[in-house]
Amino acid sequence: MIARWTTLATGLMLAACSAGSDTAERMNGNGVSLRNLADTEVARDAAERDFRLQGDLIPTPSDTRSRYFLLRERKALGGTIIAILRQEQGSRVAYARAEVDCGKRLFHVLGVGPSRASAEVAIAHDGPLRPIAGLPLREELAGYVCERSGTPLAAA
């Protein structure tokens, strides 16, 4: 009987790990796609639009399908900026925690989730900070985050 429960528990853990790593692998191809985050299983339906943190709308002319909001930003010990972002697309909403190096024009996603709290603790496997050149959405988000933090984004 114990062997049967152990086998069942092991199977459930493997299934849970497989589902999580599958999601991470799909998102890890070229990093996390912020433009398509609301289309993934990370997002949820936004039944109520009365968000506790409204945030500031970020102008993103490169993505007219979605609306992005800066919920908060803070300086990290190394001088980079950590930002919490919300993407709204139709009835779907997703959150991301991103790191921006304003002086070096670098950006990466630290965590994503269906809520602000889950994005704060999640690990997105987006890789190291990377240049934003050629990535208009990341450049628009980084520019806004840097401006709001009082550290302007360095010239290209």
Care to describe what's here?
It is a single chain. This protein is α+β, with helices and mostly antiparallel strands. The protein has 2 domains: 1-29; 31-149, no CATH class. It contains 3 helices and 7 strands; from the N terminus they run H-E-E-E-E-E-E-H-E-H. It has helices at residues 2-28, 116-121, 136-149, and strands spanning 44-45, 56-58, 67-75, 81-89, 92-101, 106-113, 130-131. Strands 1, 2, 3, 4, 5, 6 and 7 form a 7-stranded antiparallel sheet that branches. The model is unreliable at 1-29 (pLDDT under 50). This is Lipoprotein. It comes from Sphingomonas metalli.
Please tally the helical runs, counting DSSP H or I stretches of 4 or more residues. 3
Instruction: For the record, give the distance between the C-alpha atoms at the N and C termini, rounded to a whole number.
Output: 65 Å
Report on the biggest sheet: 7 strands, antiparallel
Q: How big a fraction of the residues is strand?
A: 25-35%
> How many domains is the backbone divided into?
2
Structural class: alpha+beta
Indicate the percent of residues in helices: 25-40%
Sequence of secondary-structure elements: HEEEEEEHEH
